[in-house]
Design brief:
The complex is a heterodimer of chains A (178) and B (214).
Chain A (H helix, E strand, L loop, with lengths): L6 H5 L9 H10 E6 L4 E3 L7 E7 L2 E7 L3 E8 L4 E2 L1 H6 L6 E4 L3 E7 H10 L2 H31 L6 H14 L5
Antiparallel strand pairs in A: 1-8, 2-7, 3-6, 3-8, 4-5, 4-7
Helix pairs in contact in A: 2-5, 5-6
Chain B lengths: L3 H6 L9 H10 L1 E5 L4 E3 L7 E7 L2 E6 L5 E7 L4 E2 L13 E4 L3 E7 H9 L3 H46 L33 H14 L1
Antiparallel strand pairs in B: 1-8, 2-7, 3-6, 3-8, 4-5, 4-7
Classes of the chains: A alpha+beta (178), B alpha+beta (214).
Chain lengths: 178, 214
């Protein structure tokens, strides 16, 4: 199958509703599509993050392993999901592993061309980053709210069950960030 | 004397701007001056702007449920305060107070929205640095919670290990010695009450968590 992505492939997904047609053309032009068999890892926790992805078809499961705390399943990703934005933005290691549940097709947006578009002030890059900044702001605000609730419940020492459920909520909400 | 545009570009969030872009944005900012002890904004205020500290230092504090003032961070020259106000209109999550004579450039959300709707390349450059700042925070929140849970798991393991050896129920009440508390800078002593919690590790945990989610 070709590695070309057409703007029409993206327009079908509600995750791209905020983008204009010309912005999706720019995005499609720099995306590279790949097919993965069932069980294959699209990205792995801890590896250097040099891109983000768009799931075009199939499903992925997301998980994160932490020493002493075990492996946490963070749910699954469905077609249209954009994931890996944190590493795209900051170039730091992946927070989670994404594995193909069945055969799937994923388009990759590499950091180099993306940063080039950011520096040029491309409209696509502006819309993309605004979406990322909104998601991050929402997550930090939500975290702030959760922290308030934990603090009110136990001002001396945070309750570890509350911290665990906060972490689960944060990671599940962030699973697209990986 | 540095111009406002130079001062803006010295801040990481505006570092990618060209001289002309910075000059144009600086012209739409308001220069604010504060004496030590004056507040830049209060916890709960409507967040309508971002502030770039162009000289001096501010402290960020919040009120705990027990009514203590907790210091959750500091802001030095070149750093920004209230950056999430560019994205949404949620209330300020902390109070910012000048510790020294302080000057700051204030950029209103409306100014940023104008840049966005004009599809200005400057908006993309600011957003890139803003996203970087927010992603660093999100990673820090996740790491800090995990670190705390790992420490608790280790303590549990040590306690249950000791119990199997001593068969002593009272051992449950003993805790490992707390981690040393980070010394408070001398400039802040007298301005900010120490953490309300005498268990310094948890006092520090609250401070760090509030510092990153703010």
């Amino acid at each position: 199958m070709s590695d070309i992505v057409s703007p029409a492939d993206l327009m079908a997904f509600h995750t791209f509703a905020a983008y204009r047609d010309d912005e999706l053309e720019v995005l499609a032009s720099i995306l590279v599509a790949r097919d993965y068999p069932a069980g294959a890892k699209v990205c792995e926790q801890g590896e250097e993050g040099v891109s983000c992805f768009v799931l075009l078809s199939g499903a992925l499961e997301v998980e994160r392993s932490i020493p002493d705390l075990g492996t946490r399943r963070l749910g699954s990703l469905l077609p249209g999901a954009i994931f890996g934005q944190l590493s795209l933005i900051d170039g730091l290691p992946r927070l989670a592993t994404c594995r193909a549940v069945g055969p799937c097709r994923v388009a990759e947006l590499e950091r180099g061309p993306f940063l080039q578009l950011c520096q040029e002030g491309s409209r696509f890059a502006t819309t993309f980053q605004l979406e990322v900044a909104r998601a991050l702001t929402r997550q930090l605000r939500q975290s702030n709210q959760t922290l308030s609730e934990i603090e009110e419940a136990g001002p001396e020492k945070p309750d570890s069950a509350a911290l665990t459920s906060w972490l689960d909520a944060l990671m599940t909400d962030s699973r697209r960030a990986v | 004397m540095a111009t406002d545009a130079t001062a803006l570009r010295a801040s990481p969030i505006f570092a990618d701007l060209s001289e002309q872009e910075a000059a144009s944005i600086a012209a739409s900012c308001t220069l604010r001056r504060y004496d030590p002890g004056m507040r830049l904004f209060d916890e709960g205020d409507a967040g309508k702007s971002l502030l770039v500290v162009t000289s001096g230092m501010a402290t960020l504090t919040r009120l705990t449920p027990a009514g203590h003032t907790m210091q959750i961070g500091r802001c030095r020259t070149g750093e920004v305060l209230g950056e999430m106000a560019l994205i949404d209109a949620a209330p300020r999550s902390a109070t910012a107070t000048a510790l020294t004579p302080l000057t700051a450039l204030e950029m209103k959300r409306a100014t940023f929205e104008q840049l966005l709707s004009a599809a200005s390349p400057a908006a993309s450059k600011i957003l890139h640095q803003l996203s970087l700042l927010l992603s660093t925070r999100l990673r820090a929140v996740i790491e800090r919670i995990e670190e705390e849970l790992m420490l608790e798991a280790e303590e549990e393991a040590i306690l249950s290990h000791e119990q199997t050896f001593h068969h002593d129920r009272t051992i449950r009440t003993s805790r490992p010695p707390p981690m040393p508390e980070r010394a408070m800078p001398s400039t802040l002593q007298g301005h900010v009450a120490a953490a309300p919690d005498d268990d310094s590790r948890h006092g520090e945990l609250w401070r760090v968590l509030w510092g990153v989610t703010r």
